[in-house]
Amino acid sequence: MNEKKGFFGKLVAGLQKTRDNIIAGVDSIFSGFSAIDEEFYEEIEEILIMGDLGIQTTMSIVEDLKKKVKEQGIKDPSECKQLLMDSIREQMDLGENAYEFENRKSVLLIIGVNGVGKTTSVGKLAGQMKDDGKKVIVAAADTFRAAAIEQLTEWARRAGVDIIAQQEGSDPAAVVFDAVAAAKSRQADVLICDTAGRLHNKKNLMEELKKINRIIDKEYPDAYRETLVVLDGTTGQNALVQAKQFMEVADITGIILTKLDGTAKGGIAVAIQSELGIPVKYIGVGEKIDDLQKFNANEFVNALFHADEKVEA
């Protein structure tokens, strides 16, 4: 529980800028308005949009808030805060946030553009799964960037996991082919593939991912599959746009949202989940290996509103 508390503390600290952006404004509305009227709702809308929850998500939240206020006959604006928290939480609830890959022999494909923390996320996940007692292999299939191969090699060394790599510029699918063979022969529980994410050249990326997927389907048909896209939380609405673009080229099963500790745009976690219907599975609030953690909507909303951690997932 201590460790969980520790991460909750980091999450509270990490969402400081977002909270200053959203909550200070929300609190002043709740205390500044004496009646719940159209202007009251408009002010809430404006603040949520500023916090990068996005227009569509904000409208859904405010509509839901209006409905609850009406149903419960609430007249005092100060009573709306809990309702607002509940509405945001519901926007993020996509049912079971599945981590099925932890229980099966699985292959994780991690995609994302340069600079979002993709290779670092692969390293952190590998380290955490190894600590959980799993046999992990990582594949350096982002072969277009020499630094990515070096970086992943260093993470693999730190985490104490095997790495399958070739030279810069080699065929990513060939790396994955070798990695699948290694995963089978070494009885690995999880194979994590660091793949490229050159969105400016979508057609090539799509072909590359198709080729990789074909190899895994053919050589490792019984492996459970997960495709996670890494997005940089500091880019706000641009992260949402990027997620949509990746959805066009791959069957995305989840999001890793990094760098939430350096941004006032943390509301993007709500927008992604609400608008795209893809669960945010991991969030990063720092550089250390345990600063990447499973996402929990209750904790996130509580940290955002600085509420006590009273809602257990």
UniProtKB/TrEMBL annotation:
Top EC class, one word: hydrolase
- One Pfam family assigned to this protein is SRP54_N
Q: Which reaction does it catalyse?
A: GTP + H2O = GDP + phosphate + H(+)
Q: What is its EC number?
A: 3.6.5.4
Q: Which GO terms describe its biological process?
A: SRP-dependent cotranslational protein targeting to membrane
Q: Which residues bind GTP?
A: 112-119, 194-198, 258-261
Provide this UniProt record's keywords sorted from A to Z: Cell membrane, Cytoplasm, GTP-binding, Hydrolase, Membrane, Nucleotide-binding, Receptor
Report the GO molecular function annotations. GTP binding; GTPase activity; signal recognition particle binding
Topology versus the membrane, per the UniProt entry?
A: Peripheral membrane protein
Q: List the SUPFAM superfamilies hit by this protein, alphabetically.
A: Domain of the SRP/SRP receptor G-proteins, P-loop containing nucleoside triphosphate hydrolases
What Gene3D superfamilies does the entry give? P-loop containing nucleotide triphosphate hydrolases (3.40.50.300), Signal recognition particle SRP54, nucleotide-binding domain (1.20.120.140)
Q: Supply the PANTHER family for this chain.
A: SIGNAL RECOGNITION PARTICLE RECEPTOR SUBUNIT ALPHA
Protein name (record): Signal recognition particle receptor FtsY
Question: Can you name the source organism?
Answer: Lacrimispora algidixylanolytica
Instruction: Give the gene that encodes this protein.
Output: ftsY
